[in-house]
C-alpha cells in the first residue's frame, strides 16, 4: 500500500500517482484530508479545510508561533519528512563513529526549531544532553511508533480561507503516516494516520470538531458504493465488481477511527445541489460536520438520505450496523447506481483550549475479496484493532507526551496551604492535575502563571500523589508528597 503526503498535510495525488494506491499503481483514493471547526467566545465560526477536490486548501506548510499565530514562511517548509526504524537503529549504533554522517531522514527530522516556535515539534528522543534541542550528533533520534513514518507540519493561518470563506482557527496540524513492514498481512495493507492538532491561538474552543474527508477512487472508473460500519467506526467505499481492473473482485478502501468516538458520517457530491451538493461556505461545512445536510436539513434513513421518509439518522448507508435504527438494512447499492460521493467521517466535538493539543487517529486499509459481502470489512476492522493493540498503538492519548522529565517541584514534600513552585518548565503551563493512588484526578485551578506557583488547598488529604503538568507540547508526571 502506497500513501502520498503533501507538505500541507493532505494525502494527495500527483501526476504519476493517486493519494492512496497499491504497489502496482492501482488507485484507491485521490485525496484524503481533514476539516476542522469551532466557535470562538463571540460565537463566530472558525474553520479550516483540506479541499479534497484539489483546488483551494486552507492549510500551508510550516508551524505557527504560539499565541501570536504568526506563520513560518511556507516556502521553507514545503517538504515532508520520511524515516524508518532501520535508519534509527543504525544511527543509534554509529552516531559516535568517526566520519559518520546521519541519513537525511535522521538529520532533517524537525524535532525542534527554537524560539519563537514551540520548543518541540516532531517527537524525538533526547539522548544525551536532555536539553529538548534535537541534535543527531549527540545521538538524538526520531521517536517512531511504526516501521516507517512520513511526517508533515502545516497551519491554517498563513493566508486567507478562500474555500470556506471563514475565519481561521490558529491551529498547527501535524500529520504522521505510519506504515508497517511486517509479515502480518493485516498491517501490511493499512496505514495509521495520526492528526495532531495544536491550538496555537489565544482562544479556548469548547466545541472543536475534526472530520476525515475522503475522495474515493477505486480503480480506473468512478463507480463506487459508499457505506458505514457503525459498530467499527468505519467509513468505506466499494467498487462495482463489474470493473475489470481488479478481476471482478470486491475491492474496498476504508477509513476507521480508532482513538476517539465518531458522531456521524455523511457524504456530498460535486454538484450545486442545495442539499447534498458541494459545500461553499462556512455554515455548509459545519452542518456536514454535524451529520446534517448543508442546508441544515437532517439526513433521513433510506433512499439517498435526502428523499426518504424514514427517521432522522446520523450514519449514512450503514447496511444493518446501526442499532439506533433497529438494524434495518440501508445501503448505497440498494438505491443508486455506483458513482462519485465524497465521504465525511465526523469525530465527536471536544474542548481544545489555548495551548492544548489533541490526537485524532484513523486507519486507512484495503480489502480485496472474491465475494460481495461487507462482513469481511468488519472482520478486517477487528483484525487490525488486534494487531495495533499488540503494538500498543490503540491507547487513547490526546496530548503529545514528551519523553523527558526536567521539571522540579519545590518543596517536596509540601504542606497543605503552602506555596508549591514548579521549576524547569520552559513553556507556559496550561493545566495542573493531582492524581491520587486510587486514580482520582483533581484539577488545580489557582495556578499563578507569573511565577509558576500554586497554593495547595487546605482540604487535601496527606499522602503521595502524581502531579500531571501540561504545557503546550508536553505532559510530565512528577511524584509529590503532601503533608498536613
Description:
The protein is mostly beta strands and 484 residues long. It is 10% helix and 34% strand. The strands form five sheets. Strands 5, 6, 9, 10, 11, 13, 14, 15 and 19 form a nine-stranded antiparallel β-sheet that branches. Strand 3 and strand 4 form a beta hairpin. It is globular and about 70 Å long.
Task: Offer a quick outline of the entry.
Helix content is 10%, strand content 34%.
Write the layout of secondary structure elements.
Blueprint: E1 2-3, E2 20-21, E3 27-39, E4 45-49, E5 60-61, E6 81-84, H1 85-94, H2 104-107, E7 124-125, E8 141-142, E9 148-155, E10 171-179, H3 185-188, E11 190-199, E12 205-216, E13 224-229, E14 234-239, E15 250-257, E16 262-268, H4 282-289, H5 332-335, E17 342-347, E18 350-352, E19 357-369, H6 375-390, E20 408-410, E21 414-415, E22 419-423, E23 429-435, E24 441-444, E25 447-448, E26 453-455, E27 463-471, E28 475-483
Parallel strand pairs: 21-28
Antiparallel strand pairs: 1-2, 2-3, 3-4, 3-12, 5-9, 6-9, 7-8, 9-10, 10-11, 11-19, 12-17, 12-18, 13-14, 14-15, 15-19, 16-17, 20-22, 22-26, 23-24, 23-27, 25-26, 27-28
* Helix fraction by DSSP (H/I, runs of at least 4): under 10%
Portion in beta strands: 25-35%
Radius of gyration: 24 Å
Number of strands: 28
Q: What kind of sheet is the major sheet?
A: 9 strands, antiparallel
- The secondary structure category is mainly beta
Distance between the termini: 60 Å
- The total count of helices amounts to 6
Low-confidence stretches: 397-405
Shape: globular
Mean pLDDT comes to: 89
Amino acid at each position: 500500500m502506497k500513501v502520498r503526503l503533501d507538505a500541507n498535510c493532505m494525502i494527495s495525488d500527483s501526476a504519476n500517482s493517486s493519494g492512496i494506491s497499491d504497489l502496482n499503481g492501482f488507485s484507491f483514493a485521490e485525496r484524503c484530508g481533514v476539516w476542522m471547526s469551532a466557535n470562538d467566545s463571540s460565537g463566530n465560526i472558525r474553520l479550516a479545510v483540506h479541499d479534497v477536490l484539489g483546488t483551494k486548501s486552507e492549510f500551508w506548510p510550516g508551524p505557527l508561533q504560539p499565541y501570536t499565530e504568526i506563520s513560518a514562511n511556507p516556502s521553507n517548509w514545503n517538504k515532508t519528512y520520511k524515516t524508518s526504524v532501520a535508519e534509527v537503529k543504525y544511527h543509534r549504533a554509529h552516531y559516535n563513529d568517526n566520519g559518520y554522517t546521519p541519513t537525511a531522514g535522521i538529520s532533517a527530522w524537525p524535532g525542534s526549531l527554537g524560539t519563537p516556535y514551540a520548543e518541540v515539534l516532531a517527537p524525538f528522543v533526547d539522548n544525551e544532553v536532555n536539553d529538548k534541542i534535537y541534535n543527531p550528533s549527540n545521538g538524538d533520534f526520531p521517536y517512531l511508533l511504526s516501521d516507517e513514518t512520513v511526517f508533515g507540519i502545516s497551519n491554517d493561518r498563513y493566508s486567507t480561507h478562500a474555500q470556506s470563506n471563514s475565519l481561521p482557527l490558529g491551529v498547527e496540524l501535524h500529520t504522521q503516516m505510519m506504515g508497517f513492514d511486517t509479515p502480518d498481512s493485516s498491517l501490511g495493507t493499512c496505514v495509521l494516520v495520526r492528526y495532531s492538532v495544536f491550538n496555537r491561538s489565544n482562544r479556548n474552543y469548547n466545541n472543536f470538531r475534526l472530520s476525515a474527508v475522503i475522495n474515493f477512487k477505486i480503480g480506473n472508473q468512478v463507480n463506487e458504493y459508499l457505506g458505514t460500519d457503525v459498530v467499527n467506526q468505519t467509513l468505506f467505499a466499494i467498487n462495482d465488481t463489474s470493473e475489470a481492473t481488479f478481476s471482478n473482485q470486491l475491492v474496498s478502501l476504508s477509513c476507521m477511527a480508532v482513538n476517539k468516538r465518531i458522531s456521524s458520517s455523511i457524504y456530498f457530491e460535486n454538484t450545486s445541489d442545495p442539499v447534498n451538493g458541494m459545500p461553499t461556505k462556512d455554515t455548509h461545512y459545519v452542518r456536514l460536520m454535524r451529520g446534517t445536510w448543508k442546508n441544515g436539513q437532517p439526513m433521513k434513513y433510506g433512499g439517498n438520505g435526502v428523499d426518504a421518509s424514514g427517521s432522522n439518522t446520523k450514519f449514512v448507508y450503514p447496511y444493518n450496523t446501526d442499532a439506533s435504527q433497529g438494524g434495518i438494512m440501508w445501503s448505497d447499492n440498494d438505491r443508486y447506481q455506483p458513482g462519485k460521493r465524497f465521504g465525511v467521517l465526523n469525530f465527536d466535538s471536544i474542548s481544545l483550549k489555548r495551548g492544548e493539543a489533541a490526537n485524532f487517529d484513523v486507519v486507512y486499509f484495503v480489502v480485496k475479496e472474491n465475494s460481495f459481502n461487507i462482513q469481511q470489512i468488519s472482520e478486517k476492522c477487528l483484525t487490525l484493532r488486534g494487531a495495533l493493540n499488540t503494538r500498543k498503538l490503540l491507547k487513547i492519548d490526546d496530548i503529545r507526551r514528551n519523553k523527558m522529565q526536567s521539571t522540579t517541584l519545590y518543596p517536596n514534600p509540601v504542606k497543605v496551604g503552602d506555596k508549591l513552585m514548579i521549576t524547569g518548565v520552559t513553556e507556559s503551563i496550561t493545566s495542573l492535575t493531582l492524581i491520587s493512588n486510587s486514580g482520582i484526578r483533581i484539577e488545580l485551578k489557582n495556578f499563578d502563571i507569573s511565577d509558576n506557583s500554586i497554593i495547595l488547598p487546605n482540604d487535601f488529604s496527606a499522602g503521595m500523589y502524581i502531579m500531571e503538568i501540561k504545557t503546550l507540547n508536553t505532559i510530565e508526571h512528577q511524584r509529590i508528597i503532601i503533608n498536613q
